Amino acid sequence: MSETVFFIIALIAGISMAIQGSLNSVFGKIVGLWEATFVVHIIATTLVAIIIFILNLNKGDFSNLAEAPWYTYLGGILNVIILYGVVISMPELGVANATTIIIAGQVTTAVIIDHFGFWGLDAVPFQWIKLLGAAFLAVGVRLMLSTG
């Protein structure tokens, strides 16, 4: 696939995150935070089960589960932390402000992960232009969070 396709996929993921966070926040206010988190994960698990077992779109092998390093299983815990953070912060900060802070945290952490190649990922060396990008991101965050 071309780089453009991956850009579009990433854009759709970003759009989906803002919509999902908004919907989950509303849902959490109606049924409760942890209840909404539970239901959202059941729906997600059901969809993934359909994709793997009914649509047969899987390319993996569950027999390799024991070969995965222990820390790779932390994604499930992080998923709950992410969902909780989104659901609790969006109603208080607004969708745009919460998403701005979330993205700033994601990008900053991603630069660090890239540079060091954590968890066996390919290292992407730090470039000073990325520091300029981070500075612009910080200015953008400040502008988004300004009330005046």
Could you please describe the fold and organization of this structure?
- It is a single chain.
- The chain has helices at residues 3-31, 33-54, 74-93, 95-116, 128-145.
- The chain is mostly helical.
- It has one domain (3-145).
Order of helices and strands: HHHHH
Radius of gyration: 18 Å
Number of helical stretches of at least 4 residues: 5
- Indicate the overall shape: globular
Which structural category do the helix and sheet elements fall into?
mainly alpha
Instruction: Bin the helical content.
Output: over 70%
Mean pLDDT over all positions: 87
> Per DSSP, what share of the residues sits in E-state strands of 2 or more residues?
under 5%
Q: Give the number of DSSP strands.
A: 0
Short overview:
The chain is built from 5 helices and no strands.
Helices and strands in order, then pairings?
Blueprint: H1 3-31, H2 33-54, H3 74-93, H4 95-116, H5 128-145
Helix pairs in contact: 1-2, 1-3, 3-4, 4-5
Search tags:
single chain, 148 residues, mainly alpha, 75% helix, globular
